[in-house]
Amino acid sequence: MSAAAPLVIDGLVVRYGARTAVDGLSLRIERGEIFGLLGPNGAGKTSTMSVIEGLLPPSGGTVLVDGEEVTRAPLAAKSKLGVQLQSSSFQAELTIAQLARLYAGLYGLRLRADEVRDRLAGMGLDGERGQPFKRLSGGQQQRFSLLVATLPRPMLMLLDEPTQGLDPQSRRQLWSEIEALRGDGGAVLLTTHSMEEAQAVCDRIAIIDHGRLLATGSPAEVVAAHREDPAVQRLAHGEPTLEDVFIALTGSAVRD
Amino acid sequence: MTETMTPPTRPSIGLALGSLLRADATAALRSRQTLILNLIVPLLYIVILGINDAKKHFATPGAVVGLGITLGLMAAGMLGYSMLVAADRTAGVFQRLRVTPTPTWLIMASRIIVQLVSAVVMSVVAIVAGSIVFGTTFPWPQILGAMGVSLLGAVMFLCLGQAIVALARSQGTVNAIGRLLYILLLLVGLLGASNLLGETLQHIAVWTPVGALAGLYDVVFGAAWSGDSTIAVIAVPVYAVVLGVVGVRFFRWDPR
């Protein structure tokens, strides 16, 4: 096993014309770590994720996935990634069992029918194996997306708002799936708008806005570091929470 | 969880291509649109011309079969393929595939191979239907020649479909342009060639993709070599190359 960190971002810059979406972001994620990237809409989370996924070329800086530079060795970097996109779809004509086989093949795995069945059963989807992706409920779709992302047993898992739109039961189930990924020795980078989720599952978080890093550390450390800020004090009803710190750092204006 | 993680390796191109081909072929077989455009359109055309007086306007049964295949290839490339690619792009299917360690050219190559195979199948069905409708037997050299021309024609119309989906971003625009061009090429290629619209249009029709390909089929099915045949031999590969370059150069995987 390689000794490199699952993810090292150094001075990442992403520009869209004159607009700078990510402005010199640096992060490092260690093995077995669940890391939350938090920020309001337009903060630069999706741009950062897109660069790591190899979907967007960076304007500056470097991104290493398990030691592989994403722009110089994109396929090698992607082979170490498991990805759950925020909005993605699968071929409408294929069943989820066929999709699981397809994506396994794209990661170099030959899965027999019984192995596909076992993997689907592991996510509580065995009964749906003959269904196309679009016929699944929201929770089942998220679980299937997670299954596809975990097929290669990746060094780094990228989860873009994995529990968005899920009911509390499905959310809890997904959290335990995410927690289990850590045990495999890989790391998880997730984005979320839910402070509850960040506190529940993340070992460390980074709050970013306008593409810049505002705070990083464990959720408890971030709250403790900003407990005495006047803006946090104004927002807090009693003990300051992560949400109070988040709003104090990123502002209370609603973003599109 | 104490399971030890296995470092992922770069998947083989063969396994990835095999997985993609299986998935794309399954999707094509399950698609009603593919069935209609690839089989029903040419069959309908051959049967309609075979059972009424229209066949006397064509030099040979081979000319009718050739034109039937041409219409099928045109429908499959300009309406079927381009719409399928546009729909998958809009839905995010390509983004999902692109985050795997699969070279992007392989994703498209698989789709094109499936289209080429279905073009050959369609040609065989059309030749068999032509033999039945016209009560004739086509010699093997003509059948093999027709297969070659079908592959060339399929490449040209796929390149045209690819150019449409490259230049138009939204699914609706791709649909509209595809239909409009289909009708335009059909009218110029068919009516123009028949001298119904005057001599000028008849000369232009020979140069259109429909006219040029129909000209190649005429030669394969035994018509005498003429100046139009030379034009057809030059025009079809030139269209394929030019449209292919446009289709690759301007294609965007992301719908935004």
**Biggest chain contact:** A-B, 44 and 37 residues
Low-pLDDT stretches of chain A: none
Strand content of chain A: 15-25%
Q: Provide a count of the helices of chain B.
A: 10
Rg of chain A to the nearest angstrom?
Answer: 19 Å
CATH class of the largest domain in chain A: Alpha Beta
Order of helices and strands of chain B: HHHHHHHHHH
Q: What does it look like?
A:
The complex is a heterodimer of chains A (256) and B (256). Chain A has 256 residues and is an alpha/beta fold. Chain A has helices at 45-53, 74-78, 96-106, 113-122, 138-150, 168-183, 195-201, 219-226, 230-235, 242-250; strands at residues 7-16, 19-29, 34-38, 60-65, 68-69, 81-84, 156-160, 187-192, 204-209, 212-217. Chain A is built from 10 helices and 10 strands. The radius of gyration of chain A is 19 Å and the shape is globular. The N and C termini of chain A lie far apart (43 Å). Chain B is mostly helical. In chain B, 78% of the residues lie in helices and 0% in strands. Chain B has 10 helices and no strands. Chain B has helices spanning 13-30, 32-50, 61-91, 93-98, 104-134, 140-167, 171-192, 199-207, 209-220, 227-249. The longest helix of chain B is centred in the N-terminal third of the chain and has 31 residues, at 61-91. The radius of gyration of chain B is 20 Å and the shape is globular. Classes of the chains: A alpha/beta (256), B mainly alpha (256). Chain A binds chain B through residues 1-2, 53-55, 66, 75-76, 78-81, 83, 85, 87-94, 98-99, 101-110, 152-155, 180, 182-186, and chain B through 1-12, 15-16, 18-20, 22-23, 26-27, 30-31, 88, 91-93, 95-103, 254.
